[in-house]
Amino acid sequence: MSLGVGLIGCGAIGSVLARAIDDGQAGDACLVMVFDKNLEKAKALAQKLKSKPKVAKTFKELLECENVKLVVEAASQEAVRTYAVEVLRAGKDLMIMSAGALVDSELMSEINRTAKENSQKVYVPSGAIAGLDGVKASVLGKIERIVLTTRKPLKALGDNAYFKKKFGSVEKPTIIYEGSAVEACKLFPANVNVAATLSLAGVGAEKTIVRVIADPTLERNVHEIEVVGEFGKLAVHVENVPSIENPKTSYLAALSAIATLKKITEPMIVGT
């Protein structure tokens, strides 16, 4: 029996994921319903799909759909804060793409508690980075440091309020932030969800160091992970092609959601 999926957010990542499910690329999953605060956007996406999923006019309508067993959030950190707990209380599993919201320890605790109380699962795809299986294994021993360096082309930072206010623009590679993942996710809510995902896999958002570099010479989003501990040293370098629909989002982030759906629905699981 196919896994019934409900989608929150019909933007760049949501659209890629919806098309993948529609084309049978996401394992044994079926897109049952889509929801977006912009109803016309949801209708437009549904109309393009062969499966013609239902369009929820309200979030309540999505929650009340019995055929939806897994809800995928592909909208924003605000959507996680608004909808995540309600999804779990409704007895549905949840996939979170806007992982930056999870650096809020109170929200994270509430999501964990609600999932346990209702026997539901919460999935957080790896997003635009790689190597999380190694990170999760390494933190079972002593860790000296985990550092994420993110290099962004200017078009990916164009409408970021913090960048515009403090820097306006830059003419050469410039460090625009260095500090904890907690603050990074607040200052760059649409750019560094990877920091939160790494924190969840590793030593937590307070102890994870994030360095954001604005680089006018780049066309791609670049993420570099360094983990040092008693196990040795782990280094990961990823150069991501930006999503065509949204340059702030890496195409790999959408692909990771597709891979997670396949992992949920297929009988054999490779890797952690």
CATH topology of the largest domain: Rossmann fold
Give the overall form.
globular
Sheet with most strands: 6 strands, parallel
Number of helices: 11
Give the overall pLDDT as a whole number: 94
Rg computed from alpha carbons, rounded to a whole number of angstroms = 18 Å
Number of strands: 11
Helical coverage, percent range: 25-40%
For the largest beta sheet, what order do the strands appear in spatially? Answer: 3-2-1-4-5-6
Overall number of structural domains = 2
Question: Which CATH-level-2 architecture of the largest domain?
Answer: 3-Layer(aba) Sandwich
pLDDT < 50 stretches: none
Range of strand content: 15-25%
Structure classification: alpha/beta
The CATH homologous superfamily name of the largest domain equals NAD(P)-binding Rossmann-like Domain
CATH class of the largest domain: Alpha Beta
Distance between the termini: 25 Å
